[in-house]
Description:
By secondary structure, the protein is of the alpha/beta class.
Amino acid sequence: MNLPKPKTVNVDLYVGGLSKINNIDNPIKLSANESALGPSPKVLELLRNNVDLKKYPDGNSNELKETISKKFNLNIDQIIIGSGSDEIISLICQSFLNEKDEVIVAEESFLMYRIYSQLNGANVKFAKNINNKFSIDETLKLLSSKTKIVFIANPNNPTGTYLNADELINLRKKLPENILLMVDDAYAEYVTKKDYKNGLELFKDSKNTVICRTFSKIFGLANLRLGWGYGSKEIIKAANTFKPPFNVSGIAEKAGSIALQDEDWINKNIEHNEKWIKKLYEKIISKNIKTNEPVANFLLLNFNNAKVNSEKAFEIFINNKILLRKMNAYNIENSLRLTVGTEEENNKFLDILENNF
Ligand SMILES: Cc1ncc(COP(=O)(O)O)c(C=O)c1O
């Protein structure tokens, strides 16, 4: 058969974390930075009672856009809704990148920036993180006339570090105006640091910065696939050109709208996270496992000074039905990433740590 030839692209495809291993059914999954407490009870109520599958959704997701606009005081026509923030990243890459353009990403950062850039023909330049943290200087060193986009996740996955408000403003100032900066706020809601400001707070009036947000983390809706972006009218218009007409289901849209308005549930999640990430952090460092200061809902554990290496640690945890995230795909040696779980899950993790390390 002479099928048309598929395009060849030079891309390291995304390999997600495992959800099942060694034939262990239903391990406690602390590997994907998902929400510890899950969706708001009000969202669960919606899903039980109001599911009308027959009709197409509103391709514009107006109800959700209105909720977002009210909550964050944003211009409705500068919002774009996506099937996960993943899709927002993809749409931005599709609309701004051409063959041989360049983008800059931190070496150890969320993989989808490099993947969507490569899928759109761009060359990816990797900036070194310094002490596991995004480095403005290293990023600036890689600028060229071909650079189109700089990506930053703040806080960064998987290193768990962040740039404070002054540093993030400084990054934008030092980048030439014609370069698009994408600030990924995926974990913003968890951060309680006084010197932190999220991308929306800092850049909602910016002409050359685009922000993306997700419902997969604190809102506990990873399976529904919902995210959104905010940028200038020109940026959002460009991204909308590539948006599939019904990229988001009506159920996801409604769930997102309810989740955003349930402040009590959001606060409960923040409190739970604050309490547990500190406990986990203290115990982890007491075992000579290095980790980042608690900021988001996960910790990157380095085993260089620990009793066992990361391979052995992974095995110990999985044999006790706890799944952590290996860092091979990120090229981070001797490390595992841990997500904050429920009280019961965290206590189990702490017990295993206490008894084996
Ligand atoms: C920094 C960052 N951005 C975006 C995402 C993806 O979110 P979504 O599920 O909305 O595609 C993740 C998920 O792990 C992430 O860590």
